[in-house]
Amino acid sequence: MYIATIDGGTSNTRVFVWHDGIIAGQAKAAVGVRNTAMDGTNQRLQEAVRDTLSEAASMAGITTEDISLILAAGMLTSNVGLCDIPHVTAPVRLEELARAMVEKNLPAICRQPIWFVPGVRNCNPATLTPDKSFDMDMMRGEEVEAAGLLAQAAPAGNAVFVLPGSHNKYVMIDEQQRIQGCLTTLCGELLHSLTFDTILADTLNRSFASEFLAGPFRKGASDYHKMGLLHGAFMTRILGMFCHYTAQEAQNYLLGLLMADDMTALERSRVFAGLEEAVFVVAGNPVMQKAYEAILTNKGRQVVLASEEQQRALSGRGVLYLAGLRGLL
Asked: What does the angle CA 162 – CA 18 – CA 153 come to, to the nearest 5 degrees?
């Protein structure tokens, strides 16, 4: 039985074809929901999903027609995706999320129906006002990554899944393995902008840290609490000009500064009450994992680093797990 999993993001679309739980083929296209927003139509996105699905199937030695089950998640369920499916409201068990999967026929992409996993939001928007918006957040795609981690590395008790990216996502899981909600920051996007599009670009050598340096990183985290985010960011340039920081040291300093801001948001969130007992399961590349380990252990938190194998095709593994709970496998 061949199964395809589709992960649609803002900028990219990824497809994996699975056979007996093993990746048999994969493909990626630099097309995402941002193209729908720019074009005013999702035609380019439909074509990208169709072609990427065909390419992944070809790598597996089959055609799209030979795929028995097609599963999808991420921004494809948004109003600029393939079909607009409302978020499920937390708290939600994985079994409940699986029951909320929606089957859609999209003949422009393939003859088979596609099963979509909805996103998750923290609370009912009908209850929100500007003064009561503090607890609201939402995700499309990270909920299946959380499912993938739960299927492979579920800790006992409360857990926080840390999913770095353009938008860092923190997903709270309670002791009953329910998704309690999430928190999103612009950390990755802001790091990119500061690194490439500001006066700091020269100091940072227009690149991200390729090696974790504990000293500069911890100084950045400490300086955040002394001088705030934006003056601290400019301090990156001062350290390069007058304290002879290398680009690598400056990159680590800035990373520490931004991560400290993330920690403040987490600690102030009511959704993330009980952090003291939670185990932090950290995904991401090795530099990001070491950075999170440093800042979290400094706060006395328990940290588990997800292995490279556990993270491989994480979204796909999560969708497969949910499909199993739904009885599709």
From this structure: 30
